[in-house]
Amino acid sequence: MWAKGVTPPLHLTFKRIDNRDDPVGMEYPYGVNTDFVFVNKLCDDPQKEYIDRECMRSIDEQGDQQHHETNVKGAMTDWYMCHQPGFKELGEIATEFSLKAFPWITHPLAWDTWGNRYESGQYADSHYHRPAQISWTYYPKVDEDHPGLFFPDMADGHDATPGVTIMPEDGDLLMWEGMIRHQVHAKEFKNPRYVIAGNMFFEYRKVTEEYRLKHHTEANTSNREDMVKSQVDKSKAKSVYSTSEME
Q: Which residues contact 60 (CB under 8 A, 6 or more apart)?
């Protein structure tokens, strides 16, 4: 997988297991399967302070643009933030790291990147990021009482029960294959939990920055309009009935 003499980057090794107790269980019928979750520690990166400040500022300013309509049951920004301050630099770091973690994906393209802010008790449903080849999350500030990232189809040994939780530290960037399911369990905690997440796709044709910016701007605008319409439609839904309406 890695060239002879090349040391793979820092990673946690697991055994991938189909979790039969989970009704959303899935098989892995294609692609290169790895049992690794790679870790890039940015605690000493000179850009960390800037990335953390700008990303958390944008997340706070945007609030919840998705209205809990995604798997994230917390505040989530626009889907495409990779041109925003902090997000841009973080995406570049993630792209460079992906070339070390997954060298067989020779032309990774950072596409969708977004930010989340969880308040106490909020969570993310089990999901995967297919068809993305690579997924990643970054943690600018982690408290001891924050929930970790749970992988329902990973185990810490060949005969172990499926389900492992990774507890990130400040400045950790976690990266794994996009087909691997993950979630965040509901848990009580004190301070907000910030996460920046993104995906990598194989760049099968050259994509200019101008094209990417145009696409992302239009997609963010369209998504916001759809979310507003969705909330209006829900507000019009009839929820109170009289017994006189019985048939």
A: 117
